[in-house]
Specification:
The structure is a homodimer.
Chain A lengths: L3 H7 L6 H14 L5 E2 H10 L6 H13 L3 E4 L7 E4 L6 E5 L5 E4 L2 H13 L2 E14 L11
Helix pairs in contact in A: 3-4
The structure holds a DNA duplex.
DNA sequence: ATGATTGCAAAACATTTGCATTCTA
DNA sequence: TAGAATGCAAATGTTTTGCAATCAT
């Protein structure tokens, strides 16, 4: 994210402190590959003295998501997690032991999905893919009995 | 599902009216390839005169899920949807126009995922895959700019 | 100035839980 | 009969929203 202000203008949103602050928090979290919940963004802002109401955070996130600047995830059942949308579309794997979230990109899997959709007479518009993984200890295991 | 009672005993759950009724509703919904929300199960039971508290429905669904008799999905952000667990592991695509949910099975995509996990030094334990699709009208479109 | 944005608190919503009652084995 | 399951309602946790005050252009 070059400049929050520029990004906001580019997508037709007015430049406000709230939006800039939320983008800043997400940007700094991104360098650590973190995916934040609204509550975490709120606490993060509070800790730096930037107060903002939770309601506003949700509103800002919704607007940024609609504008395509932010992506919302639902890894687990529970709270949504947010991250900056980059040029690089990627998916996630979640380590079931450590809770660590690993990002990955794989063109092949997207092609497969397009193929599957087409086989049913549909066109792929979007998808959600999350892999639940464990450190590879050379154990032969299958998924869902397959 | 051969017999709800037998299934319940098999997984070590006592046979109660609530559990049987919920399994029945899910079984009849399954023939229409429906994935029900707790609220829908509740209404379905009410409409046939079988009253059951919402709290119980959630408790029963949680138990059935832990026992492996039921699978919980989170297609959209919002309420969870439940379906009977069958022997056949399958994934879903959601039509963005009609809201229709199509089930599909594809071994190739699972192999791809195993490969991706392994490339990162992990072992695939489970995954969530949902394709968002639209009736194929021969429009060339790409996903996420890819 | 004016329309969009925000704070605040209440509302909405799905889901969970405590406790007394009822049911299963 | 004992222990598990249920109804009911209150509690929870996340997210949304109405309205008056404030801000961006």
């Amino acid at each position: 994210m070059v400049s929050p202000k520029r990004e906001l203008r580019k997508v037709g949103l007015t430049v406000t402190m709230s939006r800039i602050k939320v983008l800043d928090v997400l940007a700094s979290a991104q360098t650590e590959s973190r995916h934040l919940r609204a509550e975490e963004i709120y606490k993060c802002l509070m800790s730096t003295g930037d107060s903002m109401s939770v309601g506003t955070i949700y509103r800002v996130l919704a607007q940024l998501e609609m504008a395509g600047l932010v992506v919302r995830h639902n890894f687990d059942t529970g709270q949504a997690r947010y991250e900056l949308a980059g040029d690089d579309r990627h998916d996630h794997m979640v380590c079931m032991d450590s809770g660590e979230i690993i990002e990955f990109r794989d063109q092949q899997i997207i092609e497969q999905q397009k193929r599957i959709a087409k086989e049913q007479g549909y066109e792929l518009v979007d998808y959600r893919l999350v892999l639940f993984v464990r450190k590879d200890i050379r154990t032969e295991k299958s998924v869902g009995g397959i």
